[in-house]
Design goal:
The protein is mainly beta and 179 residues long. 15% of the residues lie in helices and 38% in strands. It has two helices and eleven strands. It has an eleven-stranded antiparallel sheet with strand order 1-2-3-4-5-6-7-8-9-10-11, with helices on one face. It is globular.
């Protein structure tokens, strides 16, 4: 589902020009890539940090899906983050955030992309292979706020996007056991 990440902390931040929010920078920092920072002139700064000593999964840019080992701040305020366990179904790869009374969810809806919702309403679609490069396509009828964009980019960069359908995962699992 995601590309292997590297721990090159000297890498230049990945930059993207968002149609609504201007230039957005995504940076993975720290000796072992334990901090992901999303920033831009027209969005609040989002910082997602993995706790020291947490077991690292190289298939996840931030290194873990365990909410006990993750802290999230949006514009300096603490938010709650709860990634799903990431098992067989696409929905298990969802990531939920609660920030200033608002609920966000990033959930895979196709092989390459995930949709972002705010309080259950779809805002747009994100795609990222776990390499800090994120593309967002906002729905024309959605009133996307700067905080929505900042959180969406952070989640897509930290956890990647997309997922295979369950039947495809089952076929791959079975084929691993065949000679």
């Amino acid at each position: 589902m995601h590309e292997d990440r590297t721990h090159d902390t000297t890498a230049v931040p990945a930059a993207v020009e968002d149609d609504h929010h201007g230039e957005i920078l995504v940076e993975l920092t720290g000796e072992q890539g334990e901090t992901l920072v999303v920033s831009g002139e027209r969005i609040p700064r989002v910082v997602l940090t993995r706790a020291p000593g947490a077991e690292i999964d190289d298939h996840i840019a931030i290194g873990t899906r365990d909410p006990r080992h993750l802290t999230l701040t949006v514009d300096g305020r603490e938010a709650t983050i709860k990634p799903g366990r990431g098992r067989l179904s696409r929905r298990s790869y969802r990531v939920d955030v609660r920030c200033a009374g608002t609920s966000y969810r990033l959930v895979p809806d196709s092989i390459p992309s995930s949709r972002l919702t705010r309080n259950g309403k779809r805002l747009g679609d994100f795609s990222s292979g776990g390499d800090r490069r994120v593309l967002a396509e906002w729905r024309a009828e959605a009133a996307v706020e700067p905080r929505d964009a900042a959180i969406g980019y952070a989640l897509a960069a930290a956890f990647g996007t997309g997922g295979q359908p369950m039947w495809m995962m089952a076929v791959e699992t079975v084929s691993e056991f065949l000679p």
